[in-house]
């Protein structure tokens, strides 16, 4: 198809479809060659104007694949009028493209506002299939979604589209089932590990979220070659949840201080006076961290530096949780800035990024830990803010430390609705920074591995998935359960000859 497709629009549509069907990783070289040809030609139509659909689609795909194209390159300016946007495809692509904006790209800001309003205004006039696509985009942009979790939905939509080659859909279903078989094998192995660990038998105050933790790992890296990484990340996520609950709902301030010191010194002698369940938590953290460090060493040949970086990440996490516990016990209400400076660590983003960098890396990877700080910082902001939007009400009732919403309400003396609006704007602006940092990560002076960048950005997408409709992690709701069944358990039924 790549060879036989000559028209620019047809090439762009092929790349767009295979990406949405989860097939992009199967054709990286063909995609790159096609996009480079598009970039070099940059043709205009005979009358000097192009349809908004091809302008937006071209811009979206080039920027999505790391090409440094400007918002003005494809003459977005002046395109936002009803007369030029009567075609729904153009509006939808314009809206999706606007989510790849950098900071201060005012034209793309205007594009998002215009296209969103236009789509909402014409929504009631659309046919069922088109309306479903529009509603899906308006609910959450494709760029903010976990791409692999969207594959089944895309296949269902394209099955009703006569213009989509049915061979692509057949390949997408085969690929999905093949990947799912690998994921099921991983889940069986990590479930066996969890049962053998037996930690939940002694901790009645914490959440048992193994399936959700593995689901998150899949959201970060679904590809079959990342089995070891997924299992490592599942272990980490379960420990993040358990330790978070130790600080939020179990330990007294004095006990938490001792626990934090024990983690800081990595010394089990400091926990001897603590309750038995806290001793079990510390020992589990100690053993799992050493286990993961050993796996990383076997995989990548790390030396002692790996375990030191892992310990440092867990120490920072526990210290940040202790700060929040102190705030709550003292009745202290931090400013939003103060809250976020601490919450960036207490969100667990740093723990995940350090483990990801070490698990996915080569010998030079440790030296790159500092070079990706800005990206990790902004991913952590998204993690905390999305979490707060989804869990603010529940955590306020449960008695946790203040959320970003509550901090902003008190600091600015505004309503909860106004505070939520402010947090949503912060999320959008942070995504703009992430878009820029993804592009910069490819520069010769950084060259942060694309696997790490992809996994790290998928953290932000995963939290959107988890907290889009509430607390999809803390509460085992039907939405999360349905997602897990669809991605991990239910295959496509194929009509094989």
UniProtKB/TrEMBL annotation:
Originating organism: Hibiscus syriacus (Rose of Sharon)
User: Under what name is this protein listed?
Assistant: Alpha-farnesene synthase
| Entry keyword annotation includes Amino-acid biosynthesis | no
What Gene3D superfamilies does the entry give?
A: Farnesyl Diphosphate Synthase, Terpene synthase, N-terminal domain
Q: What residues does the Terpene synthase N-terminal domain cover?
A: 6-138
Show the InterPro entries listed in the entry. Answer: Isoprenoid_synthase_dom_sf, Terpene_cyclase-like_1_C, Terpene_cyclase_plant_C1, Terpene_synth_N, Terpene_synth_N_sf, Terpene_synthase-like, Terpene_synthase_metal-bd, Terpenoid_cyclase/PrenylTrfase
What domain of life does the UniProt record list for this protein's source?
Eukaryota
Keywords, A to Z, come to:
Magnesium, Metal-binding
User: Can you give the residue ranges of the Terpene synthase metal-binding domain?
Assistant: 196-432
